[in-house]
Amino acid sequence: KKLIIINGPNLNLLGKREPAIYGSLSFTDFLEEIKQKYSNNEIDYFQSNIEGEIINKLQEVGFSYDGIILNAAAYTHTSVGIGDAIKAIETPVVEVHISNTYAREEFRHQSYISPNAKGVILGFGLQSYELAIQSFQL
Ligand code: DQA
One Pfam family, short name please (predicted)? Predict the structure, then answer.
C-alpha cells in the first residue's frame, strides 16, 4: 500500500517535548523502524507546523494514495479547514494521537478530524501509528 504519515505542529519535537506524555523516542528513529517492519508498503512522511501546508499535502496525496495517517496535533481541536480537506479528498484518513486526548483537558475532547475519518486510534503512544498502518493491511 502507498501510505503517508502526516504530523502536525510540534510533533517535530517528539523525543524532546514533554516526554512523560509523548515518550522519549524521536519520530525519525521510530519511522525507520516502522518502514523496515512494513517494507511491503511505501510509507511517506510529512510534518508541518503550518495549517495550510497540511491542507496542501492532504490535497496533493488525497486522490492517489491508499491511506493517510494523520496526527493533526493541536489543529485537531481547532481546524475546520483540515476537517473540510479530509471531506474533499478520496483517500481514507485514519486519525491518530499519541496520548489519550479524552483523558486530558476538555479542549482536547473536540476533534474536527474524527467526523471525517475512517477511524481513530489514540492513547497507545507511538504504537498508535503502527496500529493505523495495520488497519490499512486489512
Ligand atoms: C496529540 C494530542 C493533541 O491534543 C496535542 O495538541 C498534540 C499531540 C497527540 O498525539 O497526543 O500536539 O495530537
Answer: DHquinase_II
**Domain 2-135 listed as CATH 3.40.50.10860:** no
**pTM (two decimals):** 0.97
> Which of 6, 69, 99, 130 to mutate for ligand 1's pocket (most ligand atoms within 8 Å of CB)?
99
Assess whether the C-beta atom of 10 lies below 6 angstroms from ligand 1.
Answer: yes
Atom nearest to 10 CA in ligand 1: 12
Q: C-alpha distances in angstroms, 106 versus 9, 11, 75, 99, 100? A: 19, 21, 15, 14, 12
- Ligand 1 binding pocket mutation candidate from 69, 71, 75 (most atoms within 8 A of CB): 71
Q: Is the complex ipTM more than 0.95?
A: yes
Region for 103 from its dihedrals, namely left if φ exceeds 0, alpha if ψ lies in -120 to 50, beta otherwise: alpha
